[in-house]
Amino acid sequence: MAAETELKFRVAPGKLSSVLRKGGLSGRRGHQSEQSLVSTYYDTTTHKLRRHGLTLRVRKIKDRYVQTVKAAGAGSLTRGEWEHEVSGARPDLKKTRHTPLRELATRKLPRKLKPVFQTEIRRMAQARRVRNSQIELAVDRGRISAGRRVRPVAELELELKSGHIADLFRLARDLERKAGAELDLRSKAEQGFMLVAGGGGAQRAGPIELKAGLSPREAFRIIAHSTLRHVAANADPVRDIDAEGVHQMRVGLRRLRAAISLFADILPRASTARIKAELKWLTGELAPAREIDVFLNESIRPITKQGVPRRGARAIRKRFSRQRVTAFERARGAVMSARYRRLLIDVIEWIEGGRHRAADDGSIAAYAAEILDRRIRKARKQGKHLNDLDPMQRHKLRIKIKKIRYAADFFESLYGDGDRKELAALSGRLKQIQSALGSLNDFMSHRELATEAALTAPPANRRAQAFASGVIVGQEREAAAGLMKDAARELHRLRRLRAVPYARA
After folding, report:
1. Of 110, 225, 290, 365, which one's alpha carbon is 20 to 30 angstroms from that of 279?
2. Cβ distance 426 to 497 under 8 Å?
3. How many CB atoms lie under 10 A from the CB of residue 336?
4. What pLDDT was estimated at residue 365?
5. Beta bridge mates, 482
């Protein structure tokens, strides 16, 4: 087995050709080469290999065929790679005996393997020496094709051949500054499978697989990588002014920030504080778009069917439609910025290189059980006094509930099949509490928005807009009592887990 440690970036096609010639990049330029690479990726019709974190390709290089099996590097930039020369364009499973594919290689598998998509790439590669490290900088142009669907490729890769990962990030920062390079956490294989599935659109969180024998720090790396991928995967939808893309990027950010909170006692304080500040900045840039979008679609648009005079409904809808455009442009600007590009590099370097504290002893199984038990106990205690909490205290309780829900999601793979039913029941209850408290929090924000709209409306529409605002506030106030009862009922039913993580290696 070989192991590859690499970073991949998207670069505007107009800047891509000049990357290899750019002065000011770290290190000394070395040998340069150029190749044409045609690769065919194979899987079953149900994508069995992909579901097990594996890819299988056969690449044609001049008159040679090279078969490669790759294993996803969960929680790491490094992934396993097994290469063998084969006689033709079809995979030869006899040469996968010493790879992870061996466990899936049944007698029927060769017949089930089909070409899924193909990449045609023109690669220019340059060796660079950065301090004591050898790094290959490769510029790739070409396309990915799956039937009639085609996706262009314009990207560069940095692969650490030998040396220190810090030098890889040093060169990465140069490329971000000089060429506007944006870290792309998706491999060509992942892009190919997205193309097969129809491609594009908002992306949801991927599954997280942990093993009980991992240390808390190792488990955190896997979780943090997954949540960062969720954030980055929604950059294009945010740029396309896709409301669900904004929502999913915010969910990814919340999940990453929750993971940092859950593992706070093992993370380095100083560097973690800097990362938290940047994640909070991006969250804040996205927040108005989501807030106004929800207000417009869930509170304003429905009142036109509830007897509110058209003039008032139209005026308030027009006002917040303009604000929505401004808020989405703000979100788009944040994701288009150099600060966002730097954030991606900073976060992944922090995940990879952060030093753990002494508390990183024992296994993730014991750590997860303690986290869930302690946080559920605290939430139950505070939830007994829900009716006495002011809006800010309810907001903080909602955040605590959300973190427990994310923790249950992060740690699900540590539990046996039977215990996962109890975990699913817990997640369902937490979701109901979170939803009720979230709606109450939204109502407070909506009240402020509606009040401001009424007070600052132009004289010609002031009365009509004030009436529409009053209807919205009145309806939400009426709904609030029911939401409080729902939240109190589910908090009362909240119980500590009897299930314990399944002790498996």
Report:
1. 365
2. yes
3. 15
4. 94
5. none
Angle at 250 between CA 244 and CA 253, to 5 degrees: 145
The distance in angstroms from the start CA to the end CA of the chain is: 22
At residue 504, the pLDDT reads 46
Q: What is the pLDDT of residue 210?
A: 93
Beta bridge partners of residue 78, listed in sequence order: 5
Contact 408, 372 (CB under 8 A): yes
What pLDDT shows up at residue 34? 94
Residue 152: exposure state from Cβ atoms within 10 A (0-12, 13-18, ≥19): exposed
Buried b / exposed e along 269-286 (16+ C-beta atoms within 10 A): eeeeeebbebbeebbebb
- Does residue 490 contact residue 379 with C-beta atoms inside 8 Å? no
* Of 138, 91, 98, 144, the residue nearest 114 (C-alpha): 91
Provide the b/e sequence for 404-416 (b: ≥16 CB within 10 Å).
Answer: bbbbbbbbbbbbe
Tell me if 353 sits within 8 A of 165, measured CB to CB.
yes
Q: From CA 435, how far away is CA 484, in angstroms rounded? A: 11
Output the pTM of the full model: 0.91
| Cα separations in angstroms, 275 against 222, 251, 495 | 17, 17, 34
Whether the predicted pLDDT of 503 surpasses 70: no
Q: What are the tokens at 30?
A: 């070395």
Rounded Cα distance, 84 and 36, in Å = 19
pLDDT digit string, tens, across residues 50-74? 999 999 999 999 999 999 999 976 5
Q: Which amino acid is at 157?
A: E
Angle of helix 310-336 relative to helix 269-294, nearest 10 degrees?
150
CA geometry: angle 89, 95, 98, nearest 5 deg: 145
Is the CB of residue 214 less than 8 Å from the CB of residue 364? Answer: yes
pLDDT digits (tens, 9 = 90+) for 291-301: 999 989 888 88
Token readout for 386 is 């829900």
